[in-house]
Amino acid sequence: MPVYFYWGEDQFRLEQAVKNLRQQVVDPLWESFNFEKFAGEDAEAVQAALAQVMTPPFGGGDRLVWLVNTTLGQRCNAELLADLELTLPQIPPNCHLLLTSTQKPDSRSKAVKLLQQHGNIQEFSPIAAWKTAEIEQQIREAAQRYQLHLPPEAIQLLAEAVGNDSRQLHNELEKLALFAGDRPLTAEDITTLVHATQQSSLTLASTLLRGDTATALSQLEDLLLQNEPPLRLLATLTKQFRTWLWVKLLSHERDNQRIAKLAEVGNPKRVYFLQKEVNAVALPSLQACLQILLATEYQLKLGAEPVATLRQGMIQLSLACSRRSWGDRSGGADN
């Protein structure tokens, strides 16, 4: 089918899919005539794209029309819906319409149902950081594309080093492929060549929950060296601590399905592990952590110096977890 909808926050994999589709259908000699991009959030641009995709390609190869950052997956007025209903079934087989978005399409939308009927919707979301088995499988598949033979310990080391960052993974595999040549790589090669400082915000959150201030500050430095935006880092921490707070609040509940729904945890099987993580942490500690995160975000938005503000916030979070969980175990002094 000549209609494609790519969505998800894993921009590297999504960009690779767009690149592959472009190479597959567009003749590079005629690309300036047969490849066009339109702003997907602008109604007039969407209408122009739909008109353009009905135009036969010029010269060799097929035509590709790309709607970038489209909002059709979330909202679509009656006029645009009518245009889609008229255009999608009539697109010539040598013309292709590509829509991309970071947001998940709303399956209840008539426009999305229409796109499902006439096209291919594909997700490009990052693997959850805690799904180590899936991350390792992604590494195996990517290594095959680079014709790399990685032993199990090397795959585990790579998973620890790059996490769910697919762009970083492919950068490291490209470097390893140049180094390896035709010989198999060893765990020692991975340790030497891959700088294992790819700390994720979720790893930092777990360290803060344990009250390990020194390690948390070190991981924060790693994240800042990787140009992690401070507000995005705080957003991840806030989401994780809010999840932990919900799980702690629902500790009396025995139905993991219900806990997962209320805590907005996608996989109910993950609830068991979340409960273990917060078992030794007092409820007031998690409540205090959300207050600290909110105050830190407020200071940053007021223009406070990011590094010093984040360091102070991480120290406060770590101390809140360690002090309050200690009080909880020694008789509830902080409760």
UniProtKB/TrEMBL annotation:
Highest taxon of the lineage: Bacteria
GO annotations of cellular component type: DNA polymerase III complex
Domain DNA polymerase III delta N-terminal: 4-123
Stretches assigned to the DNA polymerase III delta subunit-like C-terminal domain: 199-304
GO molecular function: DNA binding; DNA-directed DNA polymerase activity
Coiled coil: none
Name of the protein: DNA polymerase III subunit delta
SUPFAM superfamilies from the UniProt entry: P-loop containing nucleoside triphosphate hydrolases (SSF52540), post-AAA+ oligomerization domain-like (SSF48019)
Record gene name: holA
Catalytically driven reaction(s): DNA(n) + a 2'-deoxyribonucleoside 5'-triphosphate = DNA(n+1) + diphosphate
Entry keyword set: DNA replication, DNA-directed DNA polymerase, Nucleotidyltransferase, Transferase
Natural source organism: Thermosynechococcus sichuanensis E542
Protein EC: 2.7.7.7
Gene3D superfamilies, A to Z: 1.10.8.60, 1.20.272.10, P-loop containing nucleotide triphosphate hydrolases
